[in-house]
């Protein structure tokens, strides 16, 4: 049996354009008065231009590996900070909204997904919002399915020298994960081109 070692950082067949979910939700959240936000699992910063356009302050969080790879790409501005996750867990900043865009589905351990959701919930101010965008149902990775091996509750995909993890969510699984872990209320939702998009309110 193949020993599978997942490398979450390799999970991006890299997209250049900001995600639809970020544009859609940012307009809504700006109208709700949101000013300070964070993106957990920000990757190569494709969503940053939209976040900076709609909000006053932005914090970005990545793994230590990605932090080291991308820190030079982050513009030096006094309303923008970039943290490796282990530093983010030590600070106590609070946000009016936290974005998780194409993020939760690359985390192989359910325990870690719950820890990320709980931490984010704690970091939201009362009435704050959590924006989640994940691939929908089983269709998203069909093109690569022949390369995928069942792994935990999703799939391992050989991508370059390492394996990455993907889970395709059904709406009821995602909603139950977030609701049971955080107790937040679903505020708005959208389906867009094989993505499940949700805004929850604390
Ligand atoms: C598929 S990418 C999406 C990146 C970005 N949100 C986007 O929309 O382009 C998922 C990102 O989550 C990051 N990631 C995985 N586990 C993480 C963790 N525990 N803390 C912070 N980032 C993490 C990965 O390194 C990767 O860059």
Question: How does this structure look, described?
Answer:
With 202 residues, this protein is an alpha/beta fold. The chain has a single domain (18-138, 168-201), classed as Vaccinia Virus protein VP39 (Rossmann fold). It has 6 helices and 10 strands, in the order H-E-H-E-H-E-H-E-H-E-E-E-E-H-E-E. It has helices at 20-31, 48-54, 64-70, 85-88, 110-123, 171-182; strands at residues 36-40, 57-62, 80-84, 95-101, 124-135, 148-151, 154-159, 162-166, 185-192, 195-201. The chain is 28% helix and 32% strand. The protein is globular and about 50 Å long. Helix 2 links the parallel strand 1 and strand 2. Helix 5 (110-123) crosses helix 6 (171-182). Bound molecules: S-adenosylmethionine (SAM).
Instruction: Indicate the CATH topology.
Output: Rossmann fold
Number of helices: 6
CATH classification class: Alpha Beta
Class by helix and strand content? Answer: alpha/beta
Q: How would you write the strand order of the largest sheet?
A: 3-2-1-4-5-10-9
Number of domains: 1
Question: Could you say what the CATH architecture is?
Answer: 3-Layer(aba) Sandwich
User: Taking all residues together, what is the mean pLDDT?
Assistant: 92
Biggest sheet: strands, sense, closure?
Answer: 7 strands, mixed
List segments where confidence is low: pLDDT < 50 over at least 5 consecutive residues: none
Bound molecules: S-adenosylmethionine
CATH H-level superfamily: Vaccinia Virus protein VP39
Distance between the termini: 44 Å
Helix content: 25-40%
Radius of gyration: 16 Å
């Amino acid at each position: 049996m193949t020993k599978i070692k997942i490398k979450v950082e390799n999970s991006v067949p890299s997209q250049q354009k900001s995600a639809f979910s970020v544009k859609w939700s940012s307009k809504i959240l700006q109208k709700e008065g949101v000013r300070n936000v964070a993106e957990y699992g920000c990757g190569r910063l494709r969503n940053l231009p939209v976040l900076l356009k709609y909000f006053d302050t932005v914090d970005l969080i990545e793994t230590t590996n990605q932090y080291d790879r991308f820190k030079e790409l982050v513009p030096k501005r006094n309303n923008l900070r970039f943290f490796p996750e282990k530093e983010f867990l030590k600070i106590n900043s609070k946000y009016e909204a936290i974005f998780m865009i194409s993020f939760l589905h690359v985390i192989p351990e359910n325990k870690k997904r719950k820890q990320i959701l709980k931490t984010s919930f704690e970091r939201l101010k009362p009435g704050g919002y959590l924006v989640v965008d994940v691939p929908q149902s089983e269709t998203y990775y069909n093109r690569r399915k022949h390369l995928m091996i069942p792994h935990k509750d999703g799939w391992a995909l050989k991508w370059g020298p390492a394996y990455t993890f993907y889970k395709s969510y059904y709406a009821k699984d995602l909603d139950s994960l977030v609701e049971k872990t955080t107790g937040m209320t679903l505020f708005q939702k959208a389906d867009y081109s094989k993505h499940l998009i949700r805004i929850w309110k604390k």
